[in-house]
Amino acid sequence: MKRYWLLIVLIVFSVCSMGYYYVAEAQSPKPEYYLKTIAGQEEDAAKVVVQGSYEVEAISVSTKGSYYPSDHQTYWQTLDSSTYFLDDLTALREQHRSFMRGKRDVNAFFEDDKVIGYAGSESPFGLEKEQSDILNIALYEKGQKKQSADFKVQIKKNKDESISVTDVQVKERTMKVVVAYQPKFHSETEFASTEYHLYTIDLDKRSIAAHERIETGAKQDAKLRTIVYNVWGTQPLSASGYIIFDQMTYALKDVKDHRPDTRNDELLNHEIFAYDIWKGQLTKIQNESIQKLLMKSGDDLIIRQAGDNLYFNLFSESGPSEVLSYSISDNKVNSDVILDLQSLQSEWGRTGIFQIVNNRLYMLMFGKQNPAIAIVDLATKKTIYQGVIERKDMVKVDKLAFSDITVKE
Fold this sequence. Notes:
This is DUF4340 domain-containing protein. The protein is mainly β. It has helices at about 5-25, 85-95, 95-100, 290-295, 340-350; strands at about 35-40, 50-55, 55-60, 65, 110, 115-120, 135-140, 145-155, 160-170, 175-185, 195-200, 205-215, 225-230, 240-250, 265-275, 280-285, 300-305, 310-315, 320-325, 330-340, 350-355, 360-365, 370-375, 380-390, 400-405. The protein is globular and about 60 Å long.
């Protein structure tokens, strides 16, 4: 026994030290923030939650105050890699803790009222290591309260490519997984556009049933460069039959540098494509109003997907702003609203994050003063609410970074 007394002392000391550190951290004061109403009725913003981070900790801010998820977790819970910045994933973790363990990438999830699907890529522990070509596939059936699929599949990947899952959809016992392939650049003169591949997974046979590359017709040569982006969706976990691609073609001014620089190179063409995941069909969106927005907007245009709808949002300090809603399935413009938001943008800064819920535009503006929220009724074109994020102790707001706006239904 005497041989082990030193080891026992060290273990006890380590546990006590860790406990003391945790208690000290938990008791250290964190600044309290809130959304302060400066115009309109506070009740109009009562359902608005701004999500982001304070230093490295997740934080949510509303009219009621700020919420730090870490303040409501034990030390051991913080070690299980299940702290999420998105409320949707946090809710899934609380309801299905066992299934969610170790799963973090919001783009790798699918959820409806029957199942939760997951297709996550294995990341290396260290930048010098090659990324795995394995996808972890899992399916949880809510009605039966059990995991009915849990297996791995191997996909095609070159050593000089990195991959990321951009979308997952599930119907019955079939899973569709969209994977982005990004080549690694070894010099400043190299360029290759991101490729997007669709994998069809048979959940019963636990294997890949089909694989295809999604071709948008992007071409490269000595003077032209085409960049293809996957348009970000505001409802990443929900069912959607489409994945949207934003494709821009530039004329290079410096042909020695193979990478396009959007500040200096000339935009020749800007196109939007909708890919029907279940039919395997790619369609170019051809609409005169949308095309005008695409070609005149530059970096001021924000495009977002919400289910089967696309929103084209041009926020400007120098002229009128515009919010255009387009139905992918119906192939038509639902609405095209011109807004006077110049004074808001000039005072608070450019709108970087937004949501459209029940025909209201929720804008998060930052860059000139404290982050601010404005709510615009798209039917009347009137700004019905303005608020600013402040510290309750009136100290200057800093070390905050915001990533999303949620409007609670």
